[in-house]
Structure to design on (854 residues):
């Protein structure tokens, strides 16, 4: 970890810059994959399964017997843990019924809003180095609470043509409509355009590698919505002398083990804390199975020594981390001053792992500074609003002249006429 | 208008297909513009002002004296109309204060959500064939209600280097922070990357031509959020024999006059209504100043004769129109069955013009079928949520084992260790 002392505000943007991930080659590769899936459907998917997953897939749809096999492979203690996490996630995501609020903006002009589920959604769950069944919980639970009718899930098959059993178990438990053994950019294309096997959906969610992320950005052009542009996972910790350095070290490592491109930042008002945390990081790192990944991630990471908690928060608000742990005195008061972050973990016992799995909050969060403008996934991510208006004769009498004046000033006579013809009719 | 009778469901997707607007050339042009703005800042903006707007711009920022000049140019009746519209839009968009709801998902695990304004936002307001000051109201009012700190607005200068006075007046009235005389893709680039004159923002809103839309899609790659991908404006009307054909015709024309690429669809259970509306359209068209634009739009438009209101609604839900007028018996009951639309106008007196200007609902709505997954602009479009969690010793004791089991099953030992080290510490 690089240690930086008392940075003045001027170099903050430079100091906090994430590695850029631009690539024209990636863009073209994904464009070709999407075009192929759009034109050739299942045949293209079969070709890529062989090429990228080294898997011969006859039937993309996971069958009932595959579910049953999967269920028998999941140990009971893991089933119990998943049930406990599911209960917490459901509790947190449950939406209170909001009464329809009709607003009479002008006498005779009634306006209101209705929140409705997005009918068809698609979820991508990566496999790769570790199966991420927790992502299934984090996406399917809010989708079901929102009332989505059709929930399609794609996950890459292993070389023997199967999907991780825990992923299948969690998907069935939470209520996915259908699961397909398809990975990568081609899975995003299949859900965006539809193929012989895969139905098309209206919005696509879920993490993935750079091909998946690029494909999500490209299908936006075809009217498909996406949850958010995802980047490598990030954790920032703000710590003072009240923190427990071994906890902070464990948290930094839990982020670093995600991948060599993970971003980890420690901000502290205490040089002693920084020293102790770094020593602890080295010590704990030795016993980790994913040591190599974590080590590379830590090389890109920074420990920043600041003169006050306030400076630390200003710097972190500019960085807008995905996860932010506040391990300081009066952590809850400090948390109130956060303006840009995906999720905030308050106090020494609030480790990021809790939010990743089971505390109840969603772990699909904005990365790469997107927390400045994006929210994490919630039930409303699976819904959209429609506005309504009902205008009476009285309403058009009262409001008509205002509309006519404005339409005329914009040079839109037909807009004006739509009001005038009604006013004349009423007489 | 093309008249189609009793279409069976199979050809609906074909029948309802919008014209595709793909262009590799457009994509490359915009890519070059954005790269130039990113590298050369104000110099690039000056070059494009000359090239595209035929305008020599020394100072992009609109000065106080320009505001004063603009104000004196806006007639009092228009000022009054704008004030009335502003009051209605504020009433509809006002957000009720929601009490913080802390959820204890497991004893000792406290989770909650906070809604915060996006600090810096950018608005694009096109000029072109008609000045669209109503867009200023529809974007700035919710941004102010959300609490955005910095509201930057860009609008293209005319050849004499000025901006439409009503746009300036409305912007000042509603509380824009700063206005810049910049148009097109280069304006989007300026707000995304920042230049010597223009501050960078976190989210960009507003309509525009295909260059602006393409630029908004491209800046997504740089972590900038956008309101939605915008396309040509659309109106669908569902009418039965209780409608007033001259009203329906006026509404269809008000949409058609937006531009030759506007989409207009009439769905009716009555052949007589279709005939009368089409006759009225021809009659009213003659007196419209924007007759040529409207005529071209109508050529791409369709009148569809269906066997029942239910079939009509099914078809329209699949089309997902930006605006939907329901001019039928029991219009409010029919409106309850709408699942995909931007905004719904109920009954004979609810013309689209009302929502465009002054009823209070927002006129920035999803087009091109995006209403299946996107919402129109609201105060929450200018905000993002942060989730929080505070876990006590008791909380980690209760929930710790669940997290450990799940982390171990995902092969993420450092995630597990972040909990284990805390459980051991508590003893």
């Amino acid at each position: 970890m690089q240690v930086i002392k008392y940075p003045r505000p001027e170099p903050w943007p430079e100091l906090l810059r994430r590695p850029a991930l631009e690539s024209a080659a990636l863009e073209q590769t994904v464009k070709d994959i999407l075009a192929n899936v759009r034109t050739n459907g299942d045949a293209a998917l079969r070709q890529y399964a062989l090429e990228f997953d080294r898997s011969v897939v006859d039937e993309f749809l996971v069958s009932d017997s595959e579910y049953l096999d999967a269920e028998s492979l999941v140990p009971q203690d893991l089933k119990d843990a998943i049930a406990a996490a599911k209960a917490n996630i459901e509790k947190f995501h449950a939406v209170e019924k909001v009464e329809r609020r009709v607003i009479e903006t002008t006498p005779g002009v009634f306006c209101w809003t209705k929140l409705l589920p997005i009918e068809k959604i698609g979820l991508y769950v990566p496999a790769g180095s570790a199966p991420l069944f927790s992502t299934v919980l984090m996406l399917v639970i809010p989708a079901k609470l929102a009332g989505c009718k059709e929930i399609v899930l794609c996950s890459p098959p292993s070389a023997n043509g199967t999907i991780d059993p825990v992923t299948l178990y969690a998907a069935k438990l939470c209520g996915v409509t259908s699961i397909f053994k398809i990975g990568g950019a081609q899975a995003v294309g299949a859900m965006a355009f539809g193929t012989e096997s895969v139905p098309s959906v209206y919005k696509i969610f879920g993490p993935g590698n750079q091909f998946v992320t690029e494909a999500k950005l490209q299908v936006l052009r075809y009217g498909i919505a996406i949850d958010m542009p995802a980047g490598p996972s990030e954790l920032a910790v703000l710590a003072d002398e009240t923190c427990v350095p071994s906890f902070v070290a464990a948290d930094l490592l839990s982020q670093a083990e995600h991948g060599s491109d993970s971003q980890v930042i420690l901000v502290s008002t205490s040089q002693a804390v920084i020293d102790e945390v770094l020593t602890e990081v080295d010590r704990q790192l030795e016993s980790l199975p994913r040591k190599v990944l974590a080590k590379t991630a830590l090389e890109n990471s920074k420990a920043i020594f600041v003169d006050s908690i306030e400076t630390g928060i200003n710097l972190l608000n500019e960085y807008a981390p995905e996860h932010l742990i506040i391990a300081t005195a009066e952590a809850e008061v400090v948390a109130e001053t956060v303006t840009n972050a995906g999720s905030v973990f308050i106090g020494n016992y609030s480790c990021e792992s809790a939010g990743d799995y089971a505390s109840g909050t969603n772990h699909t969060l904005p990365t790469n500074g997107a927390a400045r403008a994006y929210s994490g996934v919630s039930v409303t991510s699976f819904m959209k609003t429609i506005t309504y208006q009902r205008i009476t004769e009285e309403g058009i009498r009262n409001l008509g002249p205002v509309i006519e004046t404005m339409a005329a000033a914009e040079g839109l006579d037909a807009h004006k006429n739509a009001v005038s013809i009604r006013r004349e009719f009423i007489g």
Remarks:
- Residues 23-226 of chain B form a domain with the Rossmann fold fold (CATH 3.40.50.1980).
- Chain B has three domains: 2-17+232-360, 23-226, 392-426.
- The mean pLDDT of chain B is 93.
